[in-house]
Amino acid sequence: MKTLYIKGGRIVDPAEGLDKIADLLVKNGLVYKVAPGLRPPPGSEVVDATDLIVAPGLIDIHVHLRDPGQEYKEDIFSGGRAAAAGGFTALASMPNTDPIADDPAVIRYIRSKVEQAVVRVYPIGAITAGLKGEMIAEMGRMKKAGAVAFSDDGKGVMNGNLMRNALSYASGIDALLIVHEEDSLLAAGGVMHEGPVSSVLGLRGMPAAAEEAMLARDIMLLELTGGRLHAAHLSTAGSVELVRRAKAKGLQITAEVTPHHLLLTDRAVKNSGYHTDTKVNPPLRSEEDRQALWEGLLDGTIDAIASDHAPHSSDDKDVEYDFAPFGIAGLESTLPLMLDEINSGRRKEFNIAMLVDKLSAAPARILGLPGGRLSVGSPADVTIIDPQRSHVIDTAKWYSKSKNTPLNGRRLTGAPVYTIVGGEIVMKEGVVPE
Ligand code: DOR
Ligand code: ZN
Description:
This protein is α/β, with parallel strands linked by helices. It has two domains: 4-54 and 378-394 and 409-428, Urease, subunit C, domain 1 (Roll); 57-367, Alpha-Beta Barrel (TIM Barrel), CATH 3.20.20.140. Helices cover 30% and strands 23% of the residues. The strands form four sheets. Strands 1, 2, 3, 4, 5, 16, 17 and 18 form an eight-stranded mixed β-sheet that branches. It has a five-stranded parallel β-sheet with strand order 9-10-13-14-15. The radius of gyration is 21 Å and the shape is globular. It starts with a strand and ends in a 6-residue tail after the last strand.
């Protein structure tokens, strides 16, 4: 029997209501015992977690792996290693690949290739065929093939009647829809947030209303059809308020936010000198929006943090602002950025237990995945964090094939030091073996 003994760490497990110094014993890939003063069985592999935080494995529910079709940007293998380096033990991959994951065959392809990844990869299927917004994709058959949710991420579903039907169909098969809220006509041609900064820069803006109008519509449809909705990457104050009110009404809605929307505003477009790494959809918004996202995160309106890891090659990004693809890569920076925010003390209510909830327990709950807690008998997916480790974001050292982030060079305090999947160490001190 293979055993792993994680000694003397601070176990932070919000789903189990645990925050205490204890040892964690893993047998045959499963959590065997969590208690202080455990004695390791002879022959155990030992990890000394003194002064470290031992958390249930982090789960990134919004990742673009680009596989199949754009493997020069990322593939399941490189994306899996990037996830492990970033402290994630599992991720959910978006369907805007080539071919698009809109039928069971593509879902099965991803599932078969996942064996090569060092972390768990859960495919998300498309809501509409070809992401075209014209016809509902075969959600039922994709669910049977292993799709854990459905999304047209990258664009909004413009046809309200189709969205209504998708919601009621999804509700019938107990499937979750993840919605990218954007009215493509309101946002048409936009490359950044519409506001004073876009006016000064002379760039076409995407108004906050393009996101809020679609979110408001979908909340109304949810009320009509029942079922569950998860709003991806909230970016505006109005969106936070809409979700807050929908939750108060008792609707089954959840929401996520990305680190870049929590940390940056449209000023980054200007201050970076129009650097295309600041081009992302939804766009970096105003300071008022950013503050509202924090409020929503802290008061529970926003359930989860997700990277929206959207890798693009430097060739793709190295063009005029108007022509660059949208996207920021974030698998390897999400956790450190959030740990640094805790260390900075800028938000008093933001602490480690809340962060583990937003990055592990809540994602598992939202997608109905195993993990998110360290209960006895659950898979031993564990992230070990050094909250005091000081380092600099250096994309040259990333495992991701893509380096597109405007946050490169930031000095941060706090980093993952071990990523453990099913009892196997897949990342140690930043190194992910082949
Ligand atoms: O910035 C983005 N990039 N937003 C999206 O919705 C899609 C994503 C991508 O696939 O690159
Ligand atoms: Zn996305």
